[in-house]
């Protein structure tokens, strides 16, 4: 009896753990880009959500309402030629931090509600300018106002998609005006890259970049997402003779090789190994390198050199700048016979072969592959891989469950 009771309790405990395991894993998070892709009339809004990276914020949250405006309604906003940061603020003003399905909109308690928006949540909204006033109006209309005086700026048109109570996508008649959101904010697009790098240990790299075509390439990519790996002063100083020896096109390529046209936070880099294209990538000229985690370190491997991230200058969407201890040498420009990178080689790294991973079936000597692979695989596994962990967890629990059941029925 006592045994049987204990067994029953175990089964219950195990069942509960199974549920805890299954819930977050079986869940399909919403994807606003995919939802709106079904409606061509909202393509402008959808595109802007992507380039402002607001789509990521929306996908991360639940209990949220996105008030979209048709392409025709968006032309008014586009005509203002606002900087991307202001557009981001304007759009974030259309993301309500509560779930308003069509039904709830028409049945607001006391007829009016003040909804906080994502603009309010950014902290960029002065006072209460980040709130939207929703009011049930005569004749079944729902009004959206941005001022305290009860002015109705836009009205509810229709429900576009509802996933209760995660996300509601509704169409409203026009963009909600907000002088606060439209005000130009000092954003990353005004960041002076070369100044920032100069002041933080990458003076030589920054000075080399200054006034070059590569500088323009970097600047042009900030808005849409940019990650720069800037070599420290000692490393780049030693590299200068080789740099000066390159053709103008080669110089531009090697500089652009240190930039990646997507924003990659340090945590993203730490949880993802793989090949990465760069600003120098141009069709057949791959100019890529491999990101590989090595314990706490993130290393960047070309077939010619392995550099390590040594510091962070900025890591804030859409811009990240990291310092690295060596100049990245693309195989497209530097022959393998070249002596190893003229860097102040940190002793710990030195014995590692800086080959493999990137190149296609490389004529690598069989001797160096066994040496490399053992440290490659564990790194993959410790990476933040929820899928794999969840799967193992379920299996483990399922095993526990069957053992308990066997015990119970014996
Ligand atoms: C709502 O989001 C949660 C968390 O992402 C998820 O577990 C759940 O399945 C979602 N609900 C629906 C109906 O998609
Ligand atoms: C959302 O969907 C778009 C288009 O299908 C896709 O490109 C994007 O990677 C998806 N985002 C996430 C977080 O899955
Ligand atoms: C609705 O109005 C009543 C009476 O004025 C008030 O007591 C109540 O707090 C209001 N409810 C909300 C949600 O504002
Ligand atoms: C919201 O708008 C209604 C009328 O549209 C108005 O009566 C109410 O005072 C407004 N509430 C706030 C807090 O602005
Ligand atoms: C950054 O500042 C330097 C001077 O410190 C200047 O020469 C350069 O043009 C600036 N770059 C941009 C993009 O404004
Ligand atoms: C510069 O290029 C020449 C010819 O390709 C080569 O012989 C020389 O070693 C190079 N110098 C440096 C510093 O790379």
TrEMBL record:
Stretches assigned to the FAS1 domain: 29-176, 189-328
Highest taxon, organism lineage: Eukaryota
UniProt keyword terms in alphabetical order: Cell membrane, Glycoprotein, GPI-anchor, Lipoprotein, Membrane, Proteoglycan, Repeat, Signal
Listed Pfam families: Fasciclin
Parts of the chain that traverse the membrane: none
Main location: membrane
Regions of compositional bias (Low complexity) in chain numbering: 341-351
Membrane topology, record value: Lipid-anchor; GPI-anchor
GO CC field: plasma membrane; side of membrane
Alphabetical list of InterPro entries matching this protein: FAS1_dom_sf (IPR036378), FAS1_domain (IPR000782), Plant_FLA (IPR033254)
Disordered as annotated region, ranges: 341-387
Localization of this protein: Cell membrane
Signal peptide annotation: 1-29
Its job: May be a cell surface adhesion protein.
Alphabetized PANTHER family for the sequence: FASCICLIN-LIKE ARABINOGALACTAN PROTEIN, FASCICLIN-LIKE ARABINOGALACTAN PROTEIN 1
Family: Belongs to the fasciclin-like AGP family.
Protein name listed in UniProt: FAS1 domain-containing protein
Species this protein is from: Ilex paraguariensis
């Amino acid at each position: 009896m006592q045994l049987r009771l204990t067994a029953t309790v175990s089964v219950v405990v195990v069942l509960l753990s199974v549920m805890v395991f299954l819930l977050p894993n079986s869940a399909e998070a919403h994807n606003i880009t995919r939802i709106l892709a079904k409606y061509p009339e909202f393509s402008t809004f959808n595109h802007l959500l992507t380039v402002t990276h607001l789509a990521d914020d929306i996908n991360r949250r639940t209990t949220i309402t996105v008030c979209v405006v048709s392409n025709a309604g968006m032309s008014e906003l586009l005509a203002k030629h606002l900087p991307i940061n202001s557009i981001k603020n304007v759009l974030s003003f259309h993301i309500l931090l509560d779930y308003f399905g069509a039904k709830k909109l028409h049945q607001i308690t006391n007829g009016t509600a003040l909804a906080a928006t994502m603009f309010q949540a950014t902290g960029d909204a002065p006072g209460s300018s980040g709130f939207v006033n929703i009011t049930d109006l005569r004749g079944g209309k729902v009004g959206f106002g941005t001022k305290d005086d009860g002015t109705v700026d836009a009205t509810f048109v229709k429900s576009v998609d509802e996933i209760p109570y995660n996300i509601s996508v509704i169409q409203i008649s026009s963009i909600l005006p907000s002088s606060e959101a439209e005000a130009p904010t000092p954003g990353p697009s005004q960041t002076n890259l070369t100044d920032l790098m100069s002041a933080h240990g990458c003076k030589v790299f920054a000075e080399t970049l200054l006034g070059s075509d590569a500088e323009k390439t970097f600047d042009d990519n900030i808005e849409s997402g940019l990650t720069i790996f800037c070599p420290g002063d000692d490393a780049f100083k030693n590299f200068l003779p080789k740099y000066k020896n390159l053709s103008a096109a080669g110089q531009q390529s090697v500089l652009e090789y240190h930039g990646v046209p997507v924003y990659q936070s340090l945590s993203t880099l730490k949880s993802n190994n793989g090949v990465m294209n760069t600003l120098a990538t141009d069709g057949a000229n791959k100019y890529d390198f491999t990101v590989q985690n090595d314990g706490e370190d993130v290393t960047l491997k070309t077939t010619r050199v392995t550099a390590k991230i040594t510091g962070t200058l900025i890591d804030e969407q859409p811009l990240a700048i990291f310092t690295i201890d060596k100049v990245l040498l693309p195989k497209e420009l530097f022959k393998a016979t070249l002596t190893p990178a003229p860097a102040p080689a940190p002793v710990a790294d030195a014995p590692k072969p800086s080959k493999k991973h990137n190149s296609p079936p490389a004529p690598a000597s069989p001797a160096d592959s066994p040496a490399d692979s053992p440290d490659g695989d564990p790194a993959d596994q410790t990476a933040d891989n929820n899928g794999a962990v969840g799967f193992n967890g379920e299996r483990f629990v399922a095993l526990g469950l069957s053992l308990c059941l066997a015990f119970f029925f014996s």
